[in-house]
Amino acid sequence: MSKIQKTCLCVVCGTPVDSDTAFGFDFNNEMYFFCTSHEEPFKMGISLGQLEINHKFISYLLNLEEPLTKSSLKKAAQQFTPMTKFDTNIESTKIFEPEFMLTTPKEFYDKISEVVIGQEIAKKAISVSVINHISEISSDSEEEYSTTADKHHILMLGHSGTGKTLIANTTASLLNLPFVSGDATSYSPTGFHGADAESVCYDLLLDTDMNFELAERGVVFIDEIDKICSSNKSAGRYESFIGSTQSTFLKLIEGKTIKVPGPVYGDAPGTSCNISSDKMLFFFGGAFNGLSEILAKKMGKKDVLGFVKANKGKNEEIDEALSSYEIFAQASREELVESLIDFGMLSEFVGRIPTIVPLKPLSKEDLEKVLLESKTSPISKQIQIFENCGYKLEFTDSFIKDIVNKSYKSATGTRALDSYIKKSVSLASFDLLSTKKVKICKEHVIIDNSCLSNPEMYKKMSI
Description:
The protein is an alpha/beta fold. It has three domains: 3-80, no CATH class; 105-358, P-loop containing nucleotide triphosphate hydrolases (Rossmann fold), CATH 3.40.50; 364-462, Helicase, Ruva Protein, domain 3. The protein has 19 helices and 14 strands. A five-stranded parallel beta sheet has the order 4-7-10-3-11, sandwiched between helices. Helix 5 (105-113) crosses helix 6 (120-137).
């Protein structure tokens, strides 16, 4: 029999206790008891799986140099079970506070327009939704926020390169909130093999270093949501699978308490913590190829490409994208919702997404503004990289004109811009860049239109 068991002292404060009635636990054939002053928080923590009994925890108890207080108990809980909210009043390392004091849709629109070029109609609708969402979740009192509060989630209809990811990411950045994104096709309903749809909430916790307040207010973007839709109403295995995935996302946007397994964060099996998706803002996106035809019939339109006859034949992909946008933009919400249901989205899912906005393919003028005016311009990024290494990087007007034309013809928008820029400076980057930072630029590097086909054609000269 151990020394602790013979004397029956409280492991925290040394107060004598009755081994027959005192709360205790067995670890490696040793009994550890708690007096009535200290038993309750440990009893609760252990029973809920919030405190894990291990050598580190025992060592902590046996080496306490002063009586355990409520404050030090919180620290103990955080130290030994970082994946758990032991006390909802534990002080967060970071609080929810927007980077800018954005109080109106107009203010938000002005800020997001510094980054996102074009998409004026979509940005205005999104700005209203975001401000309404922030107004809902910013209440200081939890009692003032109801789980039945209106949701303000957003569905963006647009082809690749129209800015879906940028809009969602910029929203999170402006609100100073964590952001995670993923493709709908990479998730599965809970219980199937692969990543659970709920794992987006796990990612928010990881992104915030286990800050529950921030994670539960995070921004989530799920792209390619159209890929888990099916107009086939049969009860086949695949239709059942994608329907279940949609159902999982539906539960998330409605507000769900999610149990996060401890091993996800390196904790022992059997431990877990809970996170709620009730205050998260969800963006969904997809190209929805074929939806415009469904919608056009519902609107009584016979010729889908009739919306852009002037451009017909110049670029089939651009024509199709423009015609789809025009149809989406002219449709009522009721027509959009009905068509999305016919496309294969669950009616309950669509019904919980109040803001549905089409994104227009970027024009040549828009693409040029992305290069020259946007805060996230791929040109600005490259100029800064070279400047850090002592080079003044310059792109000629002819290069700008040619890259805009090539990107527009590719019909992949901003993705093409970024790809062409990186390719054009690839050899200059290989030859000149270094990890050493230089404050003064002594050489000039010029990228002209010849670098689009041959990156070796860059020019370097002394300033």
